[in-house]
């Protein structure tokens, strides 16, 4: 439950390679769904408070079809408490799930942890998305981490574009839309993401020629109150790396220290 004052314009990511998940703060469902390399197909809702889902009689779970995705993306999922789902290709696949597999999904939604890798050939799912106070604590299992790197690069660029002038931007004219940060630039930080790192848009340094977004390695957290508290201290020391946007060439680069 959030108790500490929420810090806007920071993103925390910590990747567990062996178990195929990323824990994050500052990336909500709308960010996630809007910035994936391919649109989500259908969602089987495991824990939620969405009121417009269709009912699957075989699993007694509700689901959202692709054409309804815009509606749930714009719902206030951060107010649901728990928001957990798994994507799927066809409802016929959902109807093939056996009792053991349905039990595994319910267990995963309850404990935010699957009994086994949560990828089912019957569903052909790419993700298992488990969040509490969506955007505050998110744990997402990825079949392919390439989707994560793409989503993160695209999310950082879109968040930068939507920042309201604000701190450190010196009232300079904003670019209307920043190009996505390419996966090759994001993956240059992959060892730091494994340790747990913060991308701090709030501390971006903007000059006439470039924007520098600092990155700090801060460690492995499940408690986001502690993470934010420690970030306040870490951010007083020199950054461990930078994402740099060249305003003239409209291109991104990275610098790692």
DSSP helix fraction: 25-40%
Structural class: alpha+beta
Number of strands: 13
Q: What's the pLDDT, averaged over the residues? A: 93
Low-confidence stretches: 166-170
Rg calc: 19 Å
Percent strand: 25-35%
Cα(first) to Cα(last) distance is 34 Å
Report the principal-axis shape. Answer: elongated
Count the DSSP helices: 8
**How many domains make up the 3D coordinates?**
2
Order of helices and strands: EEHEEEHEHHEEHHHEEEHEE
Task: Give an overview of the whole structure.
- This protein has helices at 29-35, 69-73, 91-94, 99-111, 145-162, 183-187, 190-195, 224-234, and strands spanning 10-16, 21-25, 42-47, 54-56, 61-64, 82-88, 127-132, 137-142, 197-200, 205-206, 210-217, 241-246, 251-256.
- It has 257 residues and is α+β, with helices and mostly antiparallel strands.
- It folds into 2 domains: 28-134, no CATH class; 164-256, no CATH class.
- Strand 1 and strand 2 form a beta hairpin.
- The two termini are 34 Å apart.
- The model is unreliable at 166-170 (pLDDT under 50).
